[in-house]
Amino acid sequence: KYKLQELQQLDAAHYLHPFTDHKELRNAGSRMIVRGEGPFIYDSEGTEILDAMAGLWCVNIGYGRDELADVAAEQMREMPYYNSFFKCATPSPVQLSAKIAEIAPPNIEQVFFGSSGSESNDTALRLVRHYWALEGKPEKNIIISRQNAYHGSTVAGASLGGMSHMHKQLGGAVPNIVHVMAPYAYELAEPGESDEAFGLRAARTIEDAILAAGADKVAAFIGEPIMGAGGVKIPPASYWPEVQRICKKYDILLMLDEVITGYGRTGEWFAATTFGIEADTITTAKALTSGYQPLSALLVGERIAKTLVEKGGEFYHGYTYSGHPVCCAVGLKNIEIIEEEGLVDRVRNDTGPYLAEQLAKRIAVHPLVGETRSVGLMGGIEIVKDKADRSRFQPGGSAATKVRDHAIANGLMIRATDDTLIMSPPLIWTRETIDLAFDRLLVALDLAEAELAS
Ligand code: PLP
């Protein structure tokens, strides 16, 4: 059905891929992924690959779900599109906003839809500034974020993010965004510093930034509950309570980016619950539709919602596809399936703890592995040269890339970012799927170890 060489030629000639070195792509040629079924994806040559990344942190209910295809087709036939500007609405975004408010933390009242996580963060940035302007404090405008954070690829998303290589290409970031330390103890804790002490120290860099700017100039702090693209960096338990305390003390809004963690990944519907955080905004996307349609939702807490309604006035912001009826119908069905199949509970009570146990038992003991960590079905594996002094093979993560390439060749799709291997599988994974993934990963680790030793 698919002619690989022909597709690769067209691909190299015309398709500008996201986050891709096109010189490398032209030499290597893309692998064509043509089908998915349950936890597996298949390429044009029929190779079966277990997808430990759920696409890109999103396909939570797995591939090949007819229920979502049926609901999309039905909605397209009935009403493919209508806008929700100018006091109009279609039913599915109304129903989905109510459903999200039901499963979200108790303070969440309203939901704003977009098509991507980046758009959702753009909206959140504009909304918190709009909020302070409505409150008569437009000078409260600075957003505090963190080094190595990822908040998307639009200009505002990349400005909010803390990835230096992205900033370099921006040619001028959105002003009034400052970045503080990431809460990553394995690399940034001082010798002898406990995780708890490090967590407090990392949180207090936010307080330092507030004091440096003046609290009357700071609008909000934004953070991923667990940094995802930055390498599944799980903060110490002391971190989030201290961040919350600091935000309350200086009257700073707390913005959570749950584009990765939303809709069950951590064993709760939202990681806000996992970490006990009360956020004023929560950005979500990806698993809202399990990736079957592009859809994001910005969850808005009662503090901002109350001001929007009481003060009135138009928020001059919105997208043609805000509340797209087909995407929202698919989102509703997706949440229904997650509920019916008990996937969030399964992650919390069964597969999440099993993943942590097996990471420790089978993977952490490998000579190339310095640390394993996970929350729910989100895991990171740190590749090191020396377990004792935590030194790396060479900066830039080429050792992790070697493991990744062997893993893919051996039927396991896993991602490498710097020296970290990342896992974020569909929530339909079972203990047996985890065992299969680690059988394949161990082969890849051994092959990479042999190569790195030679
Ligand atoms: N925020 C986080 C935490 C993400 O991981 C991502 C994407 O990976 C985004 C925002 C951007 O989402 P999108 O790629 O849908 O624009």
Question: Describe it for me?
Answer:
- The chain folds into two domains: 143 residues, Aspartate Aminotransferase, domain 1 (Alpha-Beta Complex), CATH 3.90.1150; 273 residues, Aspartate Aminotransferase, domain 2, CATH 3.40.640.10.
- 44% of the residues lie in helices and 16% in strands.
- A seven-stranded mixed β-sheet has the order 4-10-9-8-7-5-6, sandwiched between helices. Strands 1-2-3-13 form a four-stranded mixed β-sheet. It has a four-stranded antiparallel β-sheet with strand order 11-12-15-14, with helices on one face.
- Helix 5 runs parallel beside helix 14, helix 10 packs parallel to helix 11 and helix 16 crosses helix 17.
- The radius of gyration is 22 Å and the shape is globular.
- The relative contact order is 0.14.
- The protein binds pyridoxal-5'-phosphate.
- Pyridoxal-5'-phosphate binds next to helix 6.
Write the layout of secondary structure elements.
Layout: H1 4-14, H2 22-28, E1 33-37, E2 40-43, E3 48-51, H3 54-57, H4 66-78, H5 91-103, E4 108-114, H6 117-134, E5 142-146, H7 155-160, H8 164-170, E6 177-180, H9 185-188, H10 195-213, E7 218-223, H11 239-249, E8 253-257, H12 271-275, E9 281-284, E10 296-301, H13 302-311, H14 325-340, H15 343-363, E11 369-375, E12 378-383, H16 398-409, E13 412-413, E14 415-417, E15 420-423, H17 431-453
Parallel strand pairs: 3-13, 5-6, 5-7, 7-8, 8-9
Antiparallel strand pairs: 1-2, 2-3, 4-10, 9-10, 11-12, 12-15, 14-15
Helix pairs in contact: 4-14, 5-14, 10-11, 15-17, 16-17
The structure holds pyridoxal-5'-phosphate.
Pyridoxal-5'-phosphate binds near residues 150 and 151.
